[in-house]
Amino acid sequence: MNATGTDVQRPLELGIMFTHRCPIACRHCGILSGPDNFDSMAMELAERCITEAALLDPRPATIVFTGGEPMMYPQHLERLLGVANQLGFATRVITNGFWGRNQATGRRLLYRLQLAGLDSLNFSADKFHLEFLPAEVFRRAIEIAWEAGFPVIVNTVLNMPGDPVALFSRLYGIPTEKIRLFDEDEFIRQVATDTVPPELTQMVNLSFGRLVGLGRAAEYPEEHYRSDLAAYTYTPCQEVVHRPVIYPDGSFQACCCAGGKIASFTVGNVRERSLADLFDEMRTRTHFRFINQFGPRALHEAIAEMSPERSSDPDGYASICDVCVAATKGLCAKDVDARLDHWLLKRFLEKDEISAASGPRRPEPAERDEEGVIAAGFFDTGRRLAGSPEDMKISTGSLENVI
After folding, report:
1. Which end of the chain has fewer surrounding CB within 10 Å, N or C?
2. 392 has a pLDDT exceeding 70
3. What secondary structure does DSSP assign to 97-113, as a single string?
4. What is the pLDDT of residues 185-203, one digit of tens each?
5. Which residues, including other chains, have CB under 8 Å from residue 258's CB and lie 6 or more apart?
6. Which residues, in sequence order, are CB contacts of 346 under 8 Å at separation 6+?
7. Range(s) within the chain of domains with CATH label 3.20.20.70
8. Phi/psi of residue 208, each to 5°?
9. pLDDT value of residue 105
10. CATH class of domain segment(s) 13-158+160-210
11. What residue stretches are annotated with the Radical SAM core domain (predicted)?
12. Which of 234, 231, 230 is nearest to 374 (CA)?
């Protein structure tokens, strides 16, 4: 869920949010899904996106269908799973398990989707879902999933300190010995080497995170377990770029955690541009490459350094994703890239100054030299940024606006 560092390269996934409709309206929902939100993507557009995804290089390993609740539209989902399956994609559906209300109906639905090409499920379950779906509905849904041979991976929001396994066990009445923390890096290795253990399909594999203060979640600040910026580590994030999402209106977003509401995460719209063009632009954005290499906390601090009026929130942040969203909220993509390009350019030039200095004239501490080395490496690996300081200045546009 929330961003974490990894020594494993995340396989590229493409999320298709073809509906905002959901049978429930959870208080923590960042995208305002619910029974009365009928925003949906035309099936022709969704099919086109899957078809274009097959032509990408590199192409996504998995197509993820999300919402809203995609399983409210089984015919549409079945059709899209079929297209993805024919093109050789692995598939995953994000669901709250509402279909566990009736075991026979839920079983028919899941087996029907499995025949259409569904490979895996991610459940969403936490105290906010419990306000609408009783625990026994979720338990019935995961029993159906186990019966069908699916690993049960559960994304849960925990907005309090404590042992995630024990907290989830109390919420849903599932014995702790049937729950284990989900290690995504380990799972990626197992899938790559075809060594996924059988017990993965017999346990609740729990992935936990904290809130992002968007959508309805912003209306309940008392639910946010906040921490100061300093409490978060400088950890690179592999979610951005590796897991982009297409929203019902066609908006192509580099990451789902911004809820489609933060302008700087918007790359473009698939109604107007090809998926290949959008992917190419996304991969070259300084903003996203910075998050991948340095992480959300470093992003927040770099933007704040280049824009002193954007100080840290004295109330803290509900999650590392909240830090990432807050860092660029209110800024357009061009402004974010310009500020980060300038920050990196400063570090690059400071490195040269440090290298030229000697003895007591050394102008900065060693840590700044390390930042300069990192900045130099960032420039060296960037496909958009040129190799010399002068070329870099040109590539950022007018730096006077961000000094």
Report:
1. C
2. no
3. -GGGGSHHHHHHHHHHH
4. 787 777 777 787 877 778 9
5. 214, 264, 265, 324, 325
6. none
7. 13-158+160-210
8. -120, 155
9. 96
10. alpha beta
11. 17-163
12. 234
